[in-house]
């Protein structure tokens, strides 16, 4: 997991080691980061972490230790989600920042030269972690094999949805993340991405979606019964 | 409803499988043993009591309250699950302490309470070891420690002696007894009957999801008197003795399970014990020993479940 989270850093160091021409290294960084970080690292890290939050306790038979404490199920789900968010951001943000710094340094630029790039990726990391985390957590209380369902959603639906015409892409998280990257980065590899939403709207939708997913998770978890595995 | 635990007509289905079938029982203060074979419904009842499941039918009260999604009542109970999985990366001290922190206990107080609880179950020397290195007996004691540490009113222990070594069994039973002596209530399940007999005479027998008997062992024995009572005699002349005893009109069956043994079933055990010496004396047959399998709780259970 830590290795996967470090992909941005490995990528940046790799580009530097390959002695890529310095004038387009930042664009190249961005171009590779969108498919690699946004569509692989972010989804995989959030999927594995969020689906295990409650489901692992059920499968390991450790949930009774929590359920017999004077703490409500909504509180358990909320604290677990907040803990997940902190853990995932600790995993994802530092490598991203260091990778950006390495890229800028390789191009002979100061750290603050392309802060829009860093800001855009940090924003999608935070909002993507929140939204995917909420979605995968909700799936984990709905089905017994959340990883399989999450893989389908994360790596099939989220990958193909962008190429479907009409408003269908709006039924994915990645559409809003791409919208944010397009709107926040001046020279973005997603400059040609089709979207009619503003950055603020995309941010608002992702925040609302995350909250809705957590509330739905709590509603299901509150009424869930737990049969220990034999 | 006045008991520590009151169950009235509780039914619980797992799809098409019936976990509890109209279970009704009242569990009084002190230690109560819930005795039944595997699959009888013991764990289902406990999961209902801790609010992990809710009944499909019937009414259940723990300390006078409905346990389903009832947060305050959890402060009053300690639960020791059947499974031995702990958070393996935590030490015994961290495990108990972390759960105490969920009770809202301040860190320093939780640390002290965890130490005390681990000492009580004899785990002080292993308190700083990760629980993944614990033996099954140590895990049982660690589970008991977390159940006890916040000083609950009632302990619900699901097979607390399962897999425990002799030393751990002694320690666990001693801890349970001391908890009850201090005024706590204990509800513990087992499918090994002699374990319960060592700490209480107060039992509830469960089979196929139903309570088939409850109360003091003596009152359960009274129920047995309605059933044929078994007596086993060691004798070198089992056939001759069987012929002599067949004259008794309350004898239900006579069986020779081994060459020098006779198994008798009677409807009137008192009459049998009164008449036996005279018959043995008259026939001059040798009887080396007499035992009633019914003297053990095991036999009580076998009778009641058929």
Report the principal-axis shape of chain B. Answer: elongated
Based on secondary structure, the structural category of chain A is mainly alpha
Strand proportion of chain B, as a percent range, falls in 25-35%
Reading off the top of the CATH hierarchy, the class of the largest domain in chain B is best stated as Alpha Beta
What is the helix/strand order of chain A? HHHHHHHHH
CATH topology tier name of the largest domain in chain B:
Rossmann fold
The secondary structure category of chain B is: alpha/beta
**Overall mean confidence score, pLDDT of chain A:** 88
Helical content of chain A stands at over 70%
Mean pLDDT over the full residue set of chain B: 87
Oligomeric form: heterodimer
Tally of extended strands of chain A? Answer: 0
Number of strands of chain B: 13
Write the H/E string of chain B, N to C.
EEEHEHEHHHEHEHEEHEHEEHEH
Basic shape of chain A:
globular
Strand adjacency order, main sheet of chain B: 5-6-7-3-8-9
Largest sheet of chain B: 6 strands, mixed
Question: Whole-Å distance between the termini of chain B?
Answer: 30 Å
Largest interface: A-B, 19 and 27 residues
Unreliable stretches of chain B (pLDDT < 50, length at least 5) are: none
